[in-house]
Design a protein that fits this description.
This protein is an alpha/beta fold. The chain is built from eleven helices and six strands. Helix content is 44%, strand content 15%.
Length: 259
């Protein structure tokens, strides 16, 4: 990832499936800087631990006393970081986090068709990555993105912003062209994954767009309630999968409220 230093606070943004997407609109005010990591680049057993250790090394090198995590994907690494480095962890926000496949019942739409294939037949992950590589032109990626979120008025509206659409098209193409291996490793890791339990989840917030095309509202709540006892849940009916792009000030405000 890339590092930008100079603000009073540093937010770590874990990315999944979007290559080098860096949407700084999540940090419009408050002196935030972003330390951004791409967990696709770390594979295999113990990947979350290595990602967390690398983050701690960077935080120490930059002399950061406390780090707030803003997580769009990368949940395993974020939870591991919080547990292994409590002296650095100042709280975390999970944006529409992953729900284990065994409690997930939403299978409509393009994204969920792919999700269903991955859950039922993990051997298809690599062919899906190959398909993305073949379809990596800007025009085709824009079409795929719009088709993927067409059930969410909020997300469709967000993609009408040329800047947001350009960001997503560029990052999706990078994910397909530069990191199909990382995509394969990441999606494989999600098969059978459940969030590890924390003794106290009060430092965490789940920020949920209820127009999320990937999950039904409320689905998986029991899994995250068990993993993060006492954590805060914020449900936003007018937001979807792309809540960080459609409601950046809200996201920044939730991060600012972490204690």
């Amino acid at each position: 990832g890339c590092v930008s230093v100079g603000g009073a606070e540093v937010v770590c943004l874990f990315l999944e499936g979007n290559g080098d997407h860096r949407d700084v609109r999540c940090f419009p005010t408050g002196g935030y800087s972003g330390l951004l990591t791409d967990t696709q680049q770390i594979d295999g057993e113990g990947a979350a631990g290595r990602a967390a250790a690398d983050m701690a090394l960077v935080a120490d090198a930059l002399k950061l006393k406390r780090v707030r995590l803003l997580c769009r994907g990368g949940e395993a690494a974020a939870l591991t970081f919080a547990k292994a480095h409590p002296h650095l962890f100042a709280g975390g926000v999970l944006l529409n986090p992953f729900r284990p496949y065994e409690v997930d019942t939403r299978w409509d739409g393009l994204m969920n068709m792919a999700k269903r294939m991955i859950a039922a037949q993990p051997q298809l992950i690599e062919p899906i990555a190959a398909f993305l590589v073949r379809r990596a032109s800007p025009k085709s990626m824009a079409g795929i993105l719009r088709e993927a979120v067409k059930a969410s008025p909020s997300d469709l509206a967000a993609l009408e912003d040329p800047r947001i659409l350009a960001d997503y098209v560029a990052s999706a193409r990078l994910a397909a062209l530069a990191t199909p291996w990382g995509f394969i490793q990441e999606q494989s890791a999600y098969v059978g994954w459940r969030p590890q339990a924390a003794a106290d989840g009060r430092a965490w917030t789940r920020l949920l767009g209820e127009q999320d095309v990937l999950y039904l509202p409320g689905e998986g709540d029991e899994v995250w309630d068990e993993a993060l006892p006492g954590h805060r849940v914020i449900r936003v009916p007018e937001a979807g999968r792309l809540i960080h792009a459609s409601h950046p000030e809200m996201v920044a405000g939730v991060v600012a409220d972490l204690v």
